[in-house]
């Protein structure tokens, strides 16, 4: 959904304190910038899941089993952190 850069909704949220001051950026020209993630949060929309890359390596082909073990541990760790 394409959101307007500034709207009455955002002004109202700012007035009642729903937008944290740390999330609003005021430009040198006096315009306000609101992170899309914050707007979607206020609208009740779910944020898309982040993508995560994992990296494992071994020194030689002889250690292929170690590589699989590393990969499994990294995948389990990422899942445990909700990534």
In short:
The chain is mainly alpha-helical and 83 residues long.
Q: Can you give a write-up of this model?
A:
The longest helix has 17 residues, at 64-80. The chain is built from three helices and two strands. The model has no long low-confidence stretch (mean pLDDT 77). By secondary structure, it is mainly alpha-helical. Strands 1-2 form a two-stranded antiparallel sheet. Strand 1 and strand 2 form a beta hairpin. The protein folds into two domains: 8-43, no CATH class; 49-83.
Principal-axes shape call = elongated
Q: How many helices? A: 3
User: Major sheet: order of its strands?
Assistant: 1-2
Radius of gyration: 21 Å
Summarize the SSE layout with pairings.
Layout: H1 8-15, E1 25-26, E2 32-33, H2 36-43, H3 64-80
Antiparallel strand pairs: 1-2
Features:
two-stranded antiparallel sheet, 2 strands
């Amino acid at each position: 959904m394409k959101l307007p850069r500034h709207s009455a909704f955002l002004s109202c949220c700012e007035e009642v304190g729903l937008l944290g001051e740390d999330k609003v950026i005021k430009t040198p020209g006096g315009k306000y910038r609101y992170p899309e993630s914050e707007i979607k949060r206020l609208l009740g929309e779910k944020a898309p899941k982040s993508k995560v890359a994992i990296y494992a390596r071994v020194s030689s082909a002889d250690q292929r089993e170690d590589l699989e073990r590393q990969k499994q541990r990294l995948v389990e760790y990422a899942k445990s952190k909700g990534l």
